[in-house]
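Dear colleague,

Following up on Tuesday's group meeting, I ran the structure prediction for the two-component complex that the binding team flagged. I've pasted the input sequences exactly as they went in, so you can double-check that nothing got truncated or mislabelled along the way. The structure tokens for the whole assembly follow below. Feel free to forward this to whoever is handling the docking comparison.

Inputs:
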Amino acid sequence: MNYRFSSRVAQLKSSAVRDILKLTQGKDMISFAGGLPAEELFPVQAVREAADRVFAAGPSALQYGLTEGYLPLREQLCERMAAKQMIVNPEQMILTTGSQQAIDLLIGVLTEPGDTILVERPTYLASLQVFALHGLKVIAAESDEHGIIPEDAERLIREHRPKLLYAVPTFGNPTGRVWSVERRQKLLSLCKQNQMPIIEDDPYGDIKFDEKDQFPTLFSLDGQVEKGAVFYTSTFSKTVAPALRTGWAMGDSGVIRMVAKAKQAADLHSSTMDQQILSQLLSGFKLDDHIRLISKSYGERMLEMHNLLKQQALKDVTWVKPKGGMFLWLELPDGLDAEALLRCAVQKGVAFVPGSSFYAENPQRNTARLNYTYNTGARTEQGVARFVEALGEFTARS
Amino acid sequence: MNYRFSSRVAQLKSSAVRDILKLTQGKDMISFAGGLPAEELFPVQAVREAADRVFAAGPSALQYGLTEGYLPLREQLCERMAAKQMIVNPEQMILTTGSQQAIDLLIGVLTEPGDTILVERPTYLASLQVFALHGLKVIAAESDEHGIIPEDAERLIREHRPKLLYAVPTFGNPTGRVWSVERRQKLLSLCKQNQMPIIEDDPYGDIKFDEKDQFPTLFSLDGQVEKGAVFYTSTFSKTVAPALRTGWAMGDSGVIRMVAKAKQAADLHSSTMDQQILSQLLSGFKLDDHIRLISKSYGERMLEMHNLLKQQALKDVTWVKPKGGMFLWLELPDGLDAEALLRCAVQKGVAFVPGSSFYAENPQRNTARLNYTYNTGARTEQGVARFVEALGEFTARS
């Protein structure tokens, strides 16, 4: 039989990161590609004890759960959110399979195929995939080290009347940028004036290298949940462990109810095993101490990579030292195509993500995203050496 | 801010079953509504030991996984499928968040909004939700106790040129019907002649009350995986436990790759914690013995409910005694609206699903789906008594 595929799926590019992840499985490949947390820092023992408590609670732990997610975990999350000046109740929150699903469901609820949406340039590649699958037109506003540039966003809004704004204002993926408070305020009022909801994607906000840094979320700045402008998404993947695949979305309860309807069709509900484990974990384990510990370690790993690259005094290679998150965003010499560089680098045993994956259109090809959280020490050293070798060879060639 | 919702989501009815499940949580409500397995039969100890082995394997168990799912579990599943004459390799299989997600993703890959699809009348309500969300037009062929009626399917195919067939040929939801082998063969060749792929949804096939019964799947009858006509979906929710939310889809490897691309956008991957637990479970625990045990118990529970209803000699209430699965499908007196009956029944402390939920259009309102696997003994007795009381009162009123 010959199949006729959905045109949207057929035209979808597979995620470069995940394809590279697949290629590199089991080989002597040092990967700076995936956004992988450090395995040796996973709180395995605490998760194990939490799982034990779930099983001890008896067989009902293994039953079907609510589409909205395990209520005790939502209640605990509401407390955690309140500590960040985000005051929500469990009806304003839904648990999802990672924040990726939260984004997919919100987009499904808040847009129609053919709608236009506004993003920062560059932006998270797996969100770009969501937008493509939903048949959206993506327009991207320029950004600098203070975040999205309000004047450019304003111009695009005037010209294209986008339906909503998707943004990662704190430790953006791929750039690691943090929006200034002034920019946050400006974008928030711009979106409100134009009746544009905002999806604020915040998987990395907790991973900050200076504890004293405070970056108020757009959600907290808006301060209004019902009929509010901002829908906030986040995840336990970076702070506890990705395998537990638990993220969440929060905002206006009417929209969250719509998201739940869409989720019923998508998968009924996410793993309640994982949600119960996380709930048990939160009641015993000091998650904030753990987040401090991993943030400290990730800060050191970032410095390791930063220093190794700096020592090389690479010509026309620049980056901004990130204050948090998981990525170093390199601008490479003009005219260099990072996709070609990747093919060369992979042969030398190091992987990264070419920056072009993070652009909806007109990619800036001389860019690369390097993850610094997964490797450390000799691995990072060797990986950077291989990367620099590829870069040298490649620039010599091109 | 006022939101403009996606028209498809806005028009979507919430699942009656899940809404009832929500209503009934924590109340003295005997629920025959959800398709819930019996909690006391969950293999809690075996799952717990399996989880222990996952944690003992070290921190990498908590890392991100492949979109296609944990490879060892796919390999084990391929062996299990081979024992049912379904010969597939891991590239022809993807693990999903329950079989619900498998259906959603396959529909996303194999249809365009506006396409028509063919189903059996009545059919699984959560699949109808998927079709609505994907903007599909649904046409339903009549069925009897031997399954979908080929002549009616043929007529509809000729008139509407549907893109594919969705079916639950073994222990259908809601009817519990089993398609005869002859009907299976006829539908299969009909679909092949018309270049229509089939999604064969088989969550209940293992739950059969007579071990000797053999119902060959459409997938095995087709016998062809690459370029094959059939995509098969199933789940561990009924045979192990729903909280582990692990289902799968299998078929042509090119289509499975497309499904993986769509899944990358939808949620990157499902819980690898759950997938690893299941993999460990399958290597130690005798799952087939467990399936025999629950099937035996469910057969007894079905008989309990069947006999209780039979004793009442209810006027103009008929049903076919199921050979497996989880549901009793009642036809109630002509003119009785089971949705109104439900409101009355819930006040008496018993819930079920009105049959109208299972029709894409022109619902047969005098039908009801009763689950018999969740309750037993005095609970079933009391629930049936309440149901009969509501029915009596209601028919007296109407």
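The domain at 11-43+288-397 of chain B is CATH 3.90.1150.10 (Aspartate Aminotransferase, domain 1).

Cheers,
M.
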